[in-house]
Amino acid sequence: xxxxxxxxxxxxxxxxxxxxxxxxxxxxxxxxxxxxxxxxxxxxxxxxxxxxxxxxxxxxxxxxxxxxxxxxxxxxxxxxxxxxxxxxxxxxxxxxxxxxxxxxxxxxxxxxxxxxxxxxxxxxxxxxxxxxxxxxxxxxxxxxxxxxxxxxxxxxxxxxxxxxxxxxxxxxxxxxxxxxxxxxxxxxxxxxxxxxxxxxxxxxxxxxxxxxxxxxxxxxxxxxxxxxxxxxxxxxxxxxxxxxxxxxxxxxxxxxxxxxxxxxxxxxxxxxxxxxxxxxxxxxxxxxxxxxxxxxxxxxxxxxxxxxxxxxxxxxxxxxxxxxxxxxxxxxxxxxxxxxxxxxxxxxxxxxxxxxxxxxxxxxxxxxxxxxx
Length: 373
Prior knowledge:
By secondary structure, the protein is an alpha/beta fold. The chain is built from 9 helices and 13 strands.
């Protein structure tokens, strides 16, 4: 038998005809963005993929031509709050192309940003349900924070503005309170952020330093940038961490799963710094208040003693015979200088002395008259 031989170009042409026959019109495709690169000329090239339980199961190259990309990119970012980036699950409208020279490619001419947001919300709800069923949602609340947390493990990106704001606000506090902060660097956004933060947390847990709390912080970002804080891997790790975990990863409108399982969540790194400064300020105020109460208590006791002394002094002065004599009374003394307390103690002819407040008078007793009882 003779061999059927065709050229590579003919093979590619048949494949092209077959692909175009199977996919004559555009279709909506769901896939994950595994790579994205915008070229200086305005075109955007993407690698789309799909993973299964065993790993990667499909991959294809895609392109958004410049004429479309200049409109699609800002539209997608305005709805989702984030540009097209790796790790996103997207729903795109594609035309399947096959080129004899470049092979299979997908030309994207539309994208549904609501799908990307909705898919993340669905995953978020599944994560919450799983954490609830495993009893992890409130596990952190069973931990106690020291009265004055001093040793703080910080998980953040060292070059992040949020981290710099936190450090400046905490260590330059107006009270002069001193804290120990050790940085455990991690990626704080993107597809690998959850695993990176978990590794940093593990490093803090294995440290020889007995940290009082662990802080996960970054500045705010787009909703899809912060999607890692809704992942089960990170949330379950926070829930089971052996010391209280504080989070500060988003804006006022963002509440992430990690915030829900943490010991406490605040919105910004600066607010997190204020949380610890306020703890010390309350303790400082309490100590000052105790000192004031002690001073008042002792001053009150001294005041009471002074009042009692004044009363005793008044009584003593009131009982002083000289003060009595000043009121017009006299004191009668016998010859021996003994106070005559009764008329019966005197006899006619006795010599007595009458003491006045300003001197004494010598007298003789002429007669004694006793009152009848």
